[in-house]
């Protein structure tokens, strides 16, 4: 669109624009805390050392940003490289940040225009004919705008490997989902909670107080390290780099009032904890851990249900309230039976040709097959 310009910013340059960047993140039409500076800057500094840039769009000469997303050169499959939005395991959401309306008084296609320039700038910077958005949520305004932009520019857009993970709706729909959990499951959770309470005082607790959150997060790190993630070296505190990233992100999110940590306390100690990120009208269940010595009481499931209840009871972020995204793998055995909503997502491939998109999709499918075969081998070895 005329009147717009794209900026290509290295992390240190993007850090200097953090106020405008954060302001965009807080008003984005589809929330994504993992593309905000509070998450992305510590993530790139401590964990992901691949060269990355923030691609941002604004009106020429203006300070406010209209669209932004971080990009890297990656191979989403085995062989083919692409300009790829920097979404991954620690932040599995690739939806770019897009300002409402994108331009004051602009026509209805303003969102698509700003998004189109974002895509073109990313492709141009990395000299690629393919731009990829992993974990792109497919049911919101950004996905619709991406389709509109692709049609207007003559690109080919494919939503590859569509998946659905657990979530919950806001307002009345969310409360209906809360009540729709199988009666047998609820009866068993109630029985387990009573049995746990018979052993010692058991209660739920939680905090959003910035003064309390750092200490609560240290309890979470300790609890997570005690479990299987600690044993396999994938807990946040398993390396100095992941611990530094996590503490920096949590401190920044807590200072903005964007963090909530819930706990199931038994005999004065946490036996399950959940770290959640609030972003506008959505809550993201970022990290969870439980004490495996109490597994027979389903502490993680107990806390997941309580967290949903609290989210639905919170002062509404919008007229409809706040919905939830579990960020969990599809079909997660603990949370999927409890959070009955659906969060659809896919890998969005934007290519200059249908053949280019098809080749990348085939390359990505080959990588998935190889990964599944490797997992099967590991499973057999571990028995």
UniProtKB/TrEMBL annotation:
Top-level taxon of the source organism: Bacteria
Residues in BioF2-like acetyltransferase domain copies: 185-314
Record keywords, A-Z: Transferase
Keyword Transferase: yes
Signal peptide location: none
A GO molecular function held by the record: transferase activity
Xref: Pfam families: Acetyltransf_6
Alphabetized InterPro entries for the sequence: Acyl_CoA_acyltransferase, BioF2-like_GNAT_dom
Protein name as it appears in the record: GNAT family N-acetyltransferase
Source species of the chain: Stappia albiluteola
Taxonomic lineage: Bacteria, Pseudomonadati, Pseudomonadota, Alphaproteobacteria, Hyphomicrobiales
